[in-house]
Each structure stands twice: as structure tokens, then as C-alpha cells.
Amino acid sequence: MAAATTQVTQNWQNFFSPATPIDAKTALLQHGAQLQPLLQAFAADPRISQISAQVTNVQFTSDTTAIVTYDLSLQGQVVQPAAAGQAVLEDGTWKVSQATLCGLVAQSGNTAASAVPGCSS
Q1: Does residue 120 form part of some domain?
Q2: 104: Cβ contacts below 8 Å, ≥ 6 apart
Q3: CATH code, 111
Q4: Handedness of CA 31, 117, 85, 46 (dihedral sign)
Q5: Which residues have CB under 8 Å from 113's CB, separation 6+?
Q6: What residues contact 87, with CB distance under 8 A and at least 6 apart?
Q7: pLDDT at 11
Q8: Fewest beta carbons less than 10 Å away: which of 31, 33, 37, 72?
Q9: What's the confidence (pLDDT) of residue 37?
Q10: What is the rounded average pLDDT of the residues 99-114?
């Protein structure tokens, strides 16, 4: 599980890195192709370029899912300590779960989430 923990951590932090292009983020997101319009809409928010995540714990709940504890930062300041999200194994790669991204978008107040299949409630 050490290799899986490393992949979850790296992929999670890359997904939330402002330096990672949308196409690469799409590859690190569960159902990324379906949610790419949401990623693009979310990226239009200027705050997104100032967000990063630091994984503090990965706990596997099955062979294909893990709970990820992370600190979400804005401009280098932690704004959501010990946040919890889910990573899923999809096509041999550990990815940020669709539910995690949709939840964060909903928290941001961005209405784009409700217009994307998979994020609407």
C-alpha cells in the first residue's frame, strides 16, 4: 500500500496545484472527461490559481477507495485544515473523486456544479 499512498498523495497535490494544466487535472479526476467543463468553469475563478492542497493522511477503505485528509490553502494560508475527501482507483490510477470536486465547487458558491451531470443533486 506504500506505493498506492504515494500515488494518491502525488496525484491529489498535483490536481490541486495551480501549475497543473486543465488537461492534466482532467486525467487526475474521476470521470474527468465528463467533468472537464466544470474544471474549466471552476478555473475561471481567480481564487483557483491561489489554491493548493497538502495531503496529511491517506486511509484505504477498500482496494479502490481511500479517504484523504488534506489541508486546503489559499495564497499559502490554510483555509480548510484537515479537510476530508475521497480518492478512487480508476483505470489503474488513483484520482480525486468526482464527489470531492463537486462538493468543493458547491462550497465555493459556483453554480456551474449544478449544471454538470454527476454534480447535480
Answers
A1: no
A2: none
A3: 3.10.450.50
A4: positive
A5: 38, 102, 105, 106, 119, 120
A6: 8, 11, 12, 58, 65, 66, 67, 68, 94, 95, 96, 97
A7: 97
A8: 33
A9: 83
A10: 72
116 by DSSP, 3-state: which?
coil
CB atoms within 10 A of CB 32: 22
Give the pLDDT confidence of 39-84 residue by residue, as tens digits.
887 777 777 778 899 999 999 999 999 999 999 998 889 999 999 9
The CA distance from 36 to 62, in Å, is 27
pTM here?
A: 0.88
3 state SS of 30? coil
Residue 40 maps to a domain = yes
Structural domain range at position 48: 2-115
Residue 83, CA distances (Å) to 13, 21, 53, 69 in order? 13, 23, 10, 6
